[in-house]
Write a structure and sequence with these properties.
alpha/beta, 6 strands, 6-stranded mixed sheet, 2 domains, Ribosomal Protein L4, Chain: A
Length: 206
């Protein structure tokens, strides 16, 4: 699959052949769903906690004597049916972590990239370089590239000027190619790739 290569002004300066093993792979929807579910589950903290009757603060003294009062027998103010009492079967800290083999995760990424490529949602830049941070300049680059409403800019490596320029834009975010993940690929309408980022992706998934 060949796609045009543009510069920061939006002019076409050539074309590039995308690796068919990555950008024309067979699309496995169920595998992408599994990878996305795993990533969302692994992001959960799982630290919700309620106190049982053994953990709430309060006296352990019997509220009234067992017999002779005419009232129901009670053992503790910390029982669940009293205000301020413990919680029955409440949440406790747990791990939501799911495991997935690396080969399956990479296959899911290849599927997601192939979907983007088939939808013409991948835009390739010859280079993305800025002398100083400028959100205005970055917004102009995105406008010239005719990207969608939500754009994922994939960087080959740390680029402080570009990262600072994107940070204040509400329609774009950046991600380094080595941290490419299924959630961001599926969550953004367009993927903006400098040519050097393609090399990192091919090294990672090729």
């Amino acid at each position: 699959m060949k796609v045009p290569v543009i510069d920061m002004s939006g002019s076409t300066v050539g074309e590039i052949e995308l690796n068919p093993a990555i950008f024309e792979a067979s699309v496995n929807v169920s595998l992408m769903h599994q990878a996305l579910t795993r990533q969302l589950a692994n992001a959960r903290q799982g630290n919700a906690k309620t106190k049982t009757r053994g953990e709430v603060n309060g006296s352990t003294r019997k509220m009234w004597k067992q017999k002779g009062t005419g009232r129901a027998r009670q053992g503790s103010r910390k029982a669940p049916h009293w205000k301020g009492g413990g919680n029955v079967f409440g949440p406790i800290p747990r791990k939501y972590t799911q495991k997935m083999p690396l080969q399956m995760r990479h296959a899911a990424l290849r599927s997601a990239l192939s979907v983007k490529a088939a939808d013409n949602s991948i835009v390739v830049l010859d280079q993305l370089a800025m002398d100083n941070p400028s959100a205005k300049t970055m917004a102009s680059v995105l406008t010239n590239a005719k990207v969608g409403r939500k754009t994922l800019v994939v960087l080959p490596e740390r680029n402080e000027n570009v990262e600072l320029s994107i940070r204040n834009l509400d329609n774009a975010t950046y991600l380094r190619a080595q941290y490419l993940n299924i959630r961001d690929l599926l969550g953004y309408e367009t993927v903006l790739l400098p040519k050097s980022a393609l090399d990192v992706i091919e090294t990672l998934l090729g």
